């Protein structure tokens, strides 16, 4: 998720558009290997309701802190999820969904586990859009999603930016009716949404009062918990 962070200066999580101003929101955060194991109980006391933890990337990386981070979030009573950093230039969508699943990327029917996340964004040093055409990228994401659903019973939440989605999928609307959007945009408001989506989660800053990146869920606690059901 660092690639999006480099595009603009981090800001505080403050929804400001008219429609969003009247919508209930919940605070959360996301972390990777570099954050170690934060004090999750302190994060919850500071207002966090949910947390996402990086698990895998491509078919060759596993976060060495994942289990400790995920268990700490569970012990603190946070609604939690995990994410896979996509590398469409390093294996099929199906292969990467299986790699995630084989490395603790599972879903638990405990009422506190969110569906796994597919993080699609630029990678420094890789070709733009990983060298794929928009149609090929949509097919890759579909391959990941279909395989993950067969493995865990859920399609992934999709993390992306409007810029990346437009450039790399042609602003595809294929996923908007079935996959929750987690938007990356470091600005005072979410701005234009891609692909016909409504806003689920918003990553708005790389630093703030909570550990790691700062996130907002647009909805009620009941709606958030609804994402944890089978």
TrEMBL record:
Biological process terms in GO annotation: carbohydrate catabolic process; cell wall macromolecule catabolic process; defense response to bacterium; killing of cells of another organism; peptidoglycan catabolic process
Which reaction does this chain catalyze? Hydrolysis of (1->4)-beta-linkages between N-acetylmuramic acid and N-acetyl-D-glucosamine residues in a peptidoglycan and between N-acetyl-D-glucosamine residues in chitodextrins
Q: Which domain of life is it from?
A: Bacteria
**Keywords on record:** Antimicrobial, Bacteriolytic enzyme, Disulfide bond, Glycosidase, Hydrolase, Secreted, Signal
Any Pfam family matching the protein? Glyco_hydro_25
Subcellular location(s) of the protein: Secreted
EC no.? 3.2.1.17
Asked whether the UniProt record includes Cell membrane among its keywords, one would answer no
User: Signal peptide: which range, if any?
Assistant: 1-21
Q: Which GO terms describe its cellular component?
A: extracellular region
Q: Name one GO molecular function term.
A: lysozyme activity
Job of this protein: This enzyme has both lysozyme (acetylmuramidase) and diacetylmuramidase activities.
Which family does the entry's similarity section mention? Answer: Belongs to the glycosyl hydrolase 25 family.
Query: What is the name of the protein in this document?
Result: lysozyme
From which source organism is this entry? Amycolatopsis bartoniae
């Amino acid at each position: 998720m660092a690639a999006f962070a480099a595009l603009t200066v981090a800001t505080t999580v403050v929804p400001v558009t008219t429609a969003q101003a009247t919508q209930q929101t919940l605070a959360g955060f996301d972390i990777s290997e570099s954050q170690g194991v934060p004090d999750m109980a302190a994060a919850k006391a500071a207002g966090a309701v949910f947390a996402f933890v990086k698990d895998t990337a491509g078919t060759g990386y596993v976060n060495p802190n994942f289990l400790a981070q995920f268990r700490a979030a569970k012990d603190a009573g946070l609604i939690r999820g995990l994410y896979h950093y996509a590398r469409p230039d390093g294996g099929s969508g199906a292969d990467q969904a299986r790699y995630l699943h084989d490395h603790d990327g599972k879903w638990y029917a405990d009422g506190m586990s969110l569906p796994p996340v597919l993080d699609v964004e630029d990678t420094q040093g890789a070709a733009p859009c990983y060298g794929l055409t928009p149609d090929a990228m949509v097919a890759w994401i579909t391959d990941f999603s279909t395989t993950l659903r067969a493995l865990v019973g859920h399609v992934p939440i999709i993390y992306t930016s409007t810029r990346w989605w437009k450039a790399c999928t042609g602003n595809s609307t294929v996923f908007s009716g079935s996959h929750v959007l987690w938007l990356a945009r470091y600005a005072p408001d979410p701005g234009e949404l891609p692909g016909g989506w409504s806003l689920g989660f918003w990553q708005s800053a790389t630093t703030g009062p909570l550990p790691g990146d700062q996130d907002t869920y647009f909805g009620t606690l009941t709606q958030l918990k609804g994402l944890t059901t089978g």
